Structure formats: structure tokens, C-alpha cells
Amino acid sequence: MLSEPLPCSCGLNHIVHNGGLYKRPFNEAFEETPMLVAVLTYVGYGVLTLFGYLRDFMRQWKIEKCQNATEREEQKDFVPLYQDFENFYNRNLYMRIRDSWNRPICSVPGAKVDMMERVSHDYNWTFTYTGRVIKDIINMGSYNYLGFAQKAGTCQEAAAKVLSQYGAGVCSTRQEMGNLDKHEELEKLVARFLGVESAMAYGMGFATNSMNIPALVGKGCLILSDELNHASLVLGARLSGATIRIFKHNNMQSLEKLLKDAIVHGQPRTRRPWKKILILVEGIYSMEGSIVRLPEVIALKKKYKSYLYLDEAHSIGALGPSGRGVVEYFGLSPEDVDVMMGTFTKSFGAAGGYIGGKKELIDYLRTYSHSAVYATSLSPPVVEQIITSMKCIMGEDGTNVGKARVQQLAENTRYFRRRLKEMGFIIYGNEDSPVVPLMLYMPAKIGAFGREMLKRNIGVVVVGFPATPIIESRARFCLSAAHTKEMLDTALKEINEVGDLLQLKYSRHRLVPLLDRPFDETTYEETED
Amino acid sequence: WESFLPSQVLVQPVQLICLYAPAYHLILEGILILWIIRLLFSKTYKLQERSDLTPKEKEELIEEWQPEPLVPPVPKDHPALNYNVVSGPPTHIITVNGKECINFASFNFLGLLDNEKVKSAAQASLKKYGVGTCGPRGFYGTFDVHLELEERLAKFMRTEEAIIYSYGFATIASAIPAYSKRGDIVFVDEAACFAIQKGLQASRSNIKLFKHNDMADLERLLKEQETEDQKNPRKARVTRRFIVVEGLYMNTGDVCPLPELIKLKYKYKVRIFLEESLSFGVLGEHGRGITEHFGINIDDIDLISANMENSLASIGGFCCGRSFIIDHQRLSGQGYCFSASLPPLLAAAAIEALNIMEDNPDIFQTLRAKCERIHELLQGISGLKVVGESFSPALHLQLEESCGSRENDVKLLKRVVDYCMNSGIALTQARYLEKEEKCLPPPRTRTGQICIELDCCLGFLFPQIIRMSVLHYSDFTLDIQVLPLMALKPDWVTGLFQYGTNAVRGRMLNFGTGE
């Protein structure tokens, strides 16, 4: 057992290259999948597929009852709406463990949560609610990083007041009649919080990406996107009409090569130089638990005169000594990031997203953002929740509560990650990231882990293909400042037990430095025609 | 040669050549053979390699390259840059830029935004669940209120299933690409709203625009496709086909000819997706939208999408239809899977709004009557024409004749809007992203909120003020008729005085003296 903090050679290795850029140790690890586990995982999928075909065969011959919803009789001769493979996967693989997702809860999604008990009498095709409530499940799944998901307290009181004054909706867009004084107040506060000139808020985090990237880049521009970027960034990039090239996850060599090639070779076919290059990265990657190598990204961006779009959905509030995100975590200046994007859903316990940056950028977005012109603006009570929670983090409410929460989260993160590693699990990501993926690998263990943990009154998130690579199924814990040491200890004890039961302790403590991972020079290019 | 060995066949000629050929010949041939071998094993010839740049040259190129700025500068006086600031609740009477106005600009059709019942339902939910959900639906972001709202919406619309999204815009924009993929064909009305356009773009399908509400044009395209299909039946068997239309068009204010569309649907085996953001909670006897308006079986529509941001005065959107279709979005709707779920208080507000709609079906009649009255009153203003159906709660006022350029038209309409605003009537110019829209509608002023709770006096005041504004900027008008006050129908006048706010009364008096 390793008692000291893990000697992560990747951090050290990297400091040799770009050490000057980092003001703090950067310890990030992705332990290699053991060969036997990888083989067994593929075998597992093989068996599932075989049984899938067998059961489809039986369904076709009416030996087994087919529970799928079917097309209307009148439309049987239409072109089929779904492709076969997609349905095959849902019917035969996803359906077996469907109970691990969409579990309905009936309380505030805080550190402990109440869940509606549901049972299935037909192998997950349908669920029935028993009417019972499973009380006080330790919630390791919600993105409640700073514990602002509360049903009482200053934020809730302020939101209630605004709700009774303004109502719930807005019924108009920002450019028409939906620009309330509350929105203006929020945007000024966000700009101050981020340390940027100006900011704009939007009604949905997902749409902040997908509706604003097209306003920034277009045909003749190049987007360099991390391979593990969130679906919203990918969608935004696609909608923009720009050329998209993908670099290896958090791999700066791959990024630099793409940047260099792009500028040297220009656009394909026409050979014109690119109009501009936009790099899309996230602060914390929600499935890997890794933190972007921001100092290096910024150095590259400056060297190659490109622009940087930083999505802080998971990192805002959750990183940095005063919760100002990944920029503060690395001790950098927000001026070096061209577009600071983030969401209010996670750390602030509200909904929506923002973009911060230079005044020219925000003025441009106010005029041309799809969201400002065509989408309804943020609901006033939600805005108030953001304002009060943000002020709390900034200490402007006159208390130390916010700062204490940020520190608590950092402590919880280090403690929880360290203990899991000591137990022998394979844990991905950065040691400071509150997103903690625990590798399960095999498809059968996805469902088993989710169910076993729920039996022990702990709510966890499990993810498999297609959200992750096919053999890298995992469980994910999201830490919160609201978790007490007792809760974490209880959770750790149960995880340890289930880990033994399901034989999940794969780690051989042989950490592979990130830079030694095979670096594949082929890049995937996508052009919108 | 008694035993004939195969090797001898080869060996003998070689021996012969070696014996009789001159030495220089042999050497030359040897070199040639080596040359061929070299050619065979050398790397393939590449154009790029020959023009390979030295690292220094590359550096120079990188040094030379000057990108465009991230965003072009926006002129300070751009009309969209300075938003109107609404202080206080955005209800019937709003304070815009410090001035109190009657609100004709929000989509609060049923006046549910400041309904006390809705507010208290949202309050109760806030006390129980807090504000945010801190997760997508899949990962502990499904609340019992979400399930209840989905069930209620499905029941209200009389469909099998409904699915809710946390953002109105994302609803249809996520639903279309969940079904229609690369290679599929979508027939879409050219006046379709921006959310539909974005959904189509995300789907990367083959898009065929037909003229607005022109069924002959649609049928022409469908026929064209049919002949195309006959040429390549194998491809046709896997090419999905969709028609995407709006119930009540956001950009034009008119309805789609749904009965004809249904006929075409079965004739050419195309699925219909219907966007009902404006018609849901407005049209039909019970507010079920365009299907109820035309008396059409809702099962004939494959998918109905609407947002909850207009009539329901909440946030978010929903899709409804048969489970066979809707359920697919729970894994494939991007805005559903990858986004945090709707804050429970907004879901609770929507449920309460549905309750009110179910308990008072007459509100839809009242709304319709008001829309028709206003539509009638707005007729005959010289210089301006009203676009759209008489029962549409969003009316578009458009210049009868353009003043030459779009820019000038926009400016002129802005003056009309400003004048109205100064007179205490908040209207809005319909905003479009001119570069992005597929078929840009002409500049218009939109009156969104013809709210049923507004007293009928406003129905009088409103066109009056518009008329006044036209009078005021009479450079483009010919003959202006301003109704004298006395010619008012008596019930309007009583209605007017029943409406108690001093602001309105004061304005009314000004009008009297103004004439």
C-alpha cells in the first residue's frame, strides 16, 4: 500500500518539459487497463451480443414476447424510423441495466437525497412505483459541488421573494421584452466574479455552447477540439460550419502539431490561410476527472495566435482557492482566455450558463448570439439563486461560508481520491478534481455496481458505452462541500465492500505517465459541406 | 537429355545468354534490373514531400499569419446592442427603461405569468426542492415533478407520452436530429422558425424548402422525390422522410394547412413533425393547439413539439406523441440527455398552469375574441398592414410599401415602436439574425401579448396609438383616419374607465386633447 501521495511520474515528467508554466504540482493519472480485464470485457460484450441475437430471433418467432413499442398499423409501410443496430443495443444491452439510470428523486438533490422506490416486473421494460420512498441516500451523483442545492437558507429565501414578485417565467427574449433588471444585475456580478470586462447569461448551459460557438466562428475558420469535449461543444462546433479537427485528450503535443500544420498548410483544397483558429477545451472533463493543462494551452494559443474557448461547466466554483475556476487554480489571468464559458447548474445550484470576456466579445454576442435573439431569457427566481450563491462564494454576503465551502470541497476531494486509490481501485483524473471516475470496465459490473450501492443507500452514477469508450465503463462520484466526513467514510466503507464483492480492485499501482501513452498521429477531420 | 528436369528449362537459356552475349550487355541489363527493383521498393511519390518546408520556413509562415479578430467590432448604435431594461415583473403593466407601459410585447397569452395560483405552486416546490436540479435526467436529475408534468402534458394533449426539455429552443432543435440523420430528407416550410432551422442543420439531412404554406409546391417536391426514389429503390427503402411545419408560424402569424398536409403524408408516406410553440394553449376549444383547431386526430401527427414559455408562462419545452416515437428521445435527444433537467419550481408552475387551462376552457374563447377584435381594429391604418390570421395572438405589423432598403424599413418601424413606447404601449420589433436566417421575413413589429386579462379598453387604445404614431411620422402615409373618441362603441368606453390605473387614464385624456 502506498502511504504517501502517489508519485505520479506524469506530473514530474511534464514539469521537465514545461515545468516553468506550472505554479503547482499537476498530478494526473490514467492507469492502463490490465490486459486480462480488457479481454474479458470484450468477451462480455460478445456474450451479450450473442444472447441479443438469440433473443431477437425468439422474439421474431414469437417464442418470447416482444415488449417494444411498435409503429402504428397505418404507418407500417413507411420507411422504418430507427436503424436496427441502435435498437438492438437498447433492447438487449441497455434494457438489462436500465434501472441504474433516471432514478426519480423526490427531495432536494443535496448531500442526502430521497428516492422513489420503483420495481420492474418485466425485466426493466416498464417500472412501477411502489409508493415507498427510500430516505437519506448519500448522494454521490449530483453536481452539487458547493452544496448550494438547498431548500432553506438565504439563497432560497431570496429566490422565493423574487418568485413572488416576478413570477416564474419571462415570456420574451432578451432582445425583445425579456431583459429584466435582474438579468443586468446578474451579468455585472458574473463579470466581477470572473474578473472579466463583461459577461452575458443564457437560459441553458448546453445551449450556451451550441448557440454561441456558431456566432464566433464560421466557414473558413478552424476549430481544434479536445476529443473528450462535451456534446454541447461538439454540436456548437458542427452548427458553426467551421472545419473541426480533434486533438488527443489533454495532449499538448497533439494540439501543437495540429496548430502548426493548420497554419503552415492553410485550408484544405483552397489553400487559403485560416481566418481564425479557436481551441475548445473544458476546465474539468466530466467523464475523466481530468483538469485541462491550461498553462500550456495558453502558451500554445499565444504562440500560434489562436483563440481559446474554455468551458468551465464543472470547474467554476469547484476549483481555485476562492472558487473562480481553473484559471484561478493555475494562478493565471482571465485575460488570457478569450471566451470564458460556464454553467450555473452545478456549483451554484441553479440553471443556465454564461459567457464572459472582453467587452467587444460580449457586445458582439448581445447582438448576434442565437440565444439572445430567439430564446426565452432566464427565469427570475433562478437568476436570484445564482446572484445570492455567487455573492456567498465571493464573501459579499458578509460571511465566510462560501470560502469555507470551497475549501471543504477541496479537502473532501483529496481525501476521497486518496482513500479510493489506497483501496486499490483504478481512479482516473487529477487529484484535485471533484469528479472521481472509478473504473468498472465490464458491462455486467455497471448494473451490479449501481444496484449494490443503492442497496447500501448510496446513490452513484454509472456510465458505459456510448458515453465512454466501449471497454472503459466506469462509476462516477461527484464530491460536494455538503458531504461530511462521516458520509464520505460511510460511502468509502460501502464502496470498499462492493469493490471486493465485484472484484473491482484492478489497480496494480503502475501508473503510466500520460506522455508515454501511445501518441497516434492520425487525426480525425470533419468538414461541413 | 534423357530426364527432362524443369530447372533445366530455366537454366539452359541463361547459360546460353551468358555464353553468347557480350559482357557490356550483361552489365547493362544487370543495372536495369536493379533499377526496376529500386523503383518497386522506393516510397511512393508525393507532391507534398517535394514542396516540404524547412522548419525555418514553417516558423516564418507561423510568424506571418495574422488571424482575423475573434469578433468584428459592433457599432455602438447597433439597434440590438442596447436592450430595453424591464424593471420589475414582466406582466401586463411593465416598466421599460423607467417608463410604465402596457405590455403588448411578451408571449404571456393567458396571463399566467403573475397568476397567484401558479406562483404559490412554484413557491411550494421551491420550499421542497430548492432551485436547481444539479444533474441531467439520467443522473439523479429526474424529480417526481418532472414525471408528473410529463404525464399531465400527455394527458392534456391526449397522446401516449410526453417528454420535457429544460429550454424551449432546444426542444425542436434536439428532436429533429434525434430522428433525421445524414441522408434523410426533410421537407420544410421556408418560413420555419430559427429553432427548426438549427435542428435541421444539426441533423445534416437533405433539406428541401417549400414555399410558405404552398401545398402545390410541397407536392411538387414530393413528386420529384418519388421519381428519384423509383430510380434507386434500394436507397429509397432506408431514406426517412419528414415534413416539418409550424402550427402557427412565429414569423408570419398564419396557420399551416394541416388537413392537406395529412393527406400528403399518407399519399407520399412522409412523417409530420409539428412545432406548436405559438398555437399550444391558444388554438382549439381546449387549447390543445392546431390539431384541435382543425379537428384532426392527434395520432396522425408523428411528433408535436411546443415550448412552455408562452402560454404556460414557465420555462422549457416538451414533445408529445406515441411512445414508439417519443421514447427514443430519452436516449437520443441531445438537449434532453446532456443538459441539466428543468428546475422543479418551473415544472410545478407549468403543472399549475395546465390545471388552470383545464379548469377554465373558456379562456381560450376569450383570448380568441380579443385577438379578433384587435386584428379588426388594426385594419385600415395607412402605411401599415397586419399580417397573419385574425385569431393569432401574435400580430405582425408590416409596412405596406418598403421605403427602399431593409435598413430604412427597420428604422422607420423602430420609430413607430418608440412612439408607442412613449405613449405607454410596449411593442417590439421582431428580431432576426439577418445573416443566419434561411428566408428572412420582412421587418415587422410584433405585438405578442394580447392577453385575456387586459381590459377591452386597451383594444381601443392600442390601435389609436399606432395610428397616432403613423400620423406622427406621416412621411410615408397617405390618408390617416383617426377615429374620433365619440365614435367609440359604448362598451369600450365603460371598459376603459373600469380599468383603474391612472397611467392609462392619463394617457387617454392626452389622446382626447391631442385631437
TrEMBL record, chain A:
<feature type="domain" description="Aminotransferase class I/classII large">
    <location>
        <begin position="135"/>
        <end position="495"/>
    </location>
</feature>
<keyword id="KW-0443">Lipid metabolism</keyword>
<keyword id="KW-0472">Membrane</keyword>
<dbReference type="GO" id="GO:0004758">
    <property type="term" value="F:serine C-palmitoyltransferase activity"/>
</dbReference>
<dbReference type="GO" id="GO:0046512">
    <property type="term" value="P:sphingosine biosynthetic process"/>
</dbReference>
<comment type="similarity">
    <text>Belongs to the class-II pyridoxal-phosphate-dependent aminotransferase family.</text>
</comment>
<dbReference type="GO" id="GO:0030170">
    <property type="term" value="F:pyridoxal phosphate binding"/>
</dbReference>
<dbReference type="GO" id="GO:0005789">
    <property type="term" value="C:endoplasmic reticulum membrane"/>
</dbReference>
<keyword id="KW-0256">Endoplasmic reticulum</keyword>
<dbReference type="Pfam" id="PF00155">
    <property type="entry name" value="Aminotran_1_2"/>
</dbReference>
<keyword id="KW-0663">Pyridoxal phosphate</keyword>
<keyword id="KW-0808">Transferase</keyword>
<dbReference type="InterPro" id="IPR015424">
    <property type="entry name" value="PyrdxlP-dep_Trfase"/>
</dbReference>
<keyword id="KW-0012">Acyltransferase</keyword>
<dbReference type="InterPro" id="IPR015421">
    <property type="entry name" value="PyrdxlP-dep_Trfase_major"/>
</dbReference>
<comment type="pathway">
    <text>Sphingolipid metabolism.</text>
</comment>
<dbReference type="GO" id="GO:0017059">
    <property type="term" value="C:serine palmitoyltransferase complex"/>
</dbReference>
<dbReference type="InterPro" id="IPR004839">
    <property type="entry name" value="Aminotransferase_I/II_large"/>
</dbReference>
<keyword id="KW-1133">Transmembrane helix</keyword>
<keyword id="KW-0746">Sphingolipid metabolism</keyword>
<dbReference type="InterPro" id="IPR001917">
    <property type="entry name" value="Aminotrans_II_pyridoxalP_BS"/>
</dbReference>
<comment type="pathway">
    <text>Lipid metabolism; sphingolipid metabolism.</text>
</comment>
UniProtKB/TrEMBL annotation, chain B:
<dbReference type="GO" id="GO:0004758">
    <property type="term" value="F:serine C-palmitoyltransferase activity"/>
</dbReference>
<keyword id="KW-0808">Transferase</keyword>
<comment type="pathway">
    <text>Sphingolipid metabolism.</text>
</comment>
<dbReference type="InterPro" id="IPR015422">
    <property type="entry name" value="PyrdxlP-dep_Trfase_small"/>
</dbReference>
<keyword id="KW-0812">Transmembrane</keyword>
<keyword id="KW-1133">Transmembrane helix</keyword>
<dbReference type="Pfam" id="PF00155">
    <property type="entry name" value="Aminotran_1_2"/>
</dbReference>
<protein>
    <recommendedName>
        <fullName>Serine palmitoyltransferase 1</fullName>
        <ecNumber>2.3.1.50</ecNumber>
    </recommendedName>
</protein>
<keyword id="KW-0663">Pyridoxal phosphate</keyword>
<comment type="pathway">
    <text>Lipid metabolism; sphingolipid metabolism.</text>
</comment>
<feature type="transmembrane region" description="Helical">
    <location>
        <begin position="20"/>
        <end position="41"/>
    </location>
</feature>
<keyword id="KW-0746">Sphingolipid metabolism</keyword>
<keyword id="KW-0012">Acyltransferase</keyword>
<dbReference type="GO" id="GO:0016020">
    <property type="term" value="C:membrane"/>
</dbReference>
<dbReference type="InterPro" id="IPR015424">
    <property type="entry name" value="PyrdxlP-dep_Trfase"/>
</dbReference>
<comment type="function">
    <text>Component of the serine palmitoyltransferase multisubunit enzyme (SPT) that catalyzes the initial and rate-limiting step in sphingolipid biosynthesis by condensing L-serine and activated acyl-CoA (most commonly palmitoyl-CoA) to form long-chain bases. The SPT complex is also composed of SPTLC2 or SPTLC3 and SPTSSA or SPTSSB. Within this complex, the heterodimer with SPTLC2 or SPTLC3 forms the catalytic core. The composition of the serine palmitoyltransferase (SPT) complex determines the substrate preference.</text>
</comment>
<feature type="transmembrane region" description="Helical">
    <location>
        <begin position="162"/>
        <end position="180"/>
    </location>
</feature>
<dbReference type="InterPro" id="IPR015421">
    <property type="entry name" value="PyrdxlP-dep_Trfase_major"/>
</dbReference>
<dbReference type="InterPro" id="IPR004839">
    <property type="entry name" value="Aminotransferase_I/II_large"/>
</dbReference>
<dbReference type="InterPro" id="IPR050087">
    <property type="entry name" value="AON_synthase_class-II"/>
</dbReference>
<dbReference type="GO" id="GO:0046512">
    <property type="term" value="P:sphingosine biosynthetic process"/>
</dbReference>
<dbReference type="GO" id="GO:0005783">
    <property type="term" value="C:endoplasmic reticulum"/>
</dbReference>
